[in-house]
Write a structure and sequence with these properties.
mainly alpha, 2 strands, about 220 residues, two-stranded antiparallel ribbon
Amino acid sequence: MLIDDLVTKESDEPYRVLTSRSEYRLTLRADNADERLTPYGIKVGLITPHEQKIYQAKYKSIYELLQTFEETILTPDARIREIFARAEITAPKNKFSLAELLKRPDVNLELIRELAPSLEFVIPEAEEVATRLRYQGYLAKEREQVQKLINIENRLIPADLNYDAITNLAREAREKFWKFQPRTLGQASRISGINPADLTALLLYIEQRRPQKTNKE
């Protein structure tokens, strides 16, 4: 994000890297940086064969563990209910998978070990799986948002648009839209300091201004 901003946007004031300015801040996490960037390192020859094997082994284990958690189904019998009671956590009423259980914020990996003692896993990999499961729904929504932004790259912004009327638009974004008068949402997205939330607010306002089609149309 830092490199992209410096080479594609104006920088006439002290530059600050803020999490909110990352287009995909749920996807661009520190814990999956090696998964996202290692393939590029391999492509340009920065990763040794030994490092590549370590990378491949790590994510092979993670994907296999994710599948194991999804396929391990437990029934809330007396033993399971007792474990939940000791942990002071409400037990599921019906059969559940470990993957479904890990989506709950009150469930940790120690509880998973106790519920399924025959499963073998290392904590770092299991934490990565738990993170993926807990973010699963949010990541799906983020991917949908990303696709929508790609689709609206050339969407025109009305010349008479009153940015002051967009109540949920950040003040900095409003000032920059007035200053640069972008003609499309793609141009608006490349203004320094504009984040995805600003673009979403702008798009929603433009959509609300569109004449509604009648049933006959």
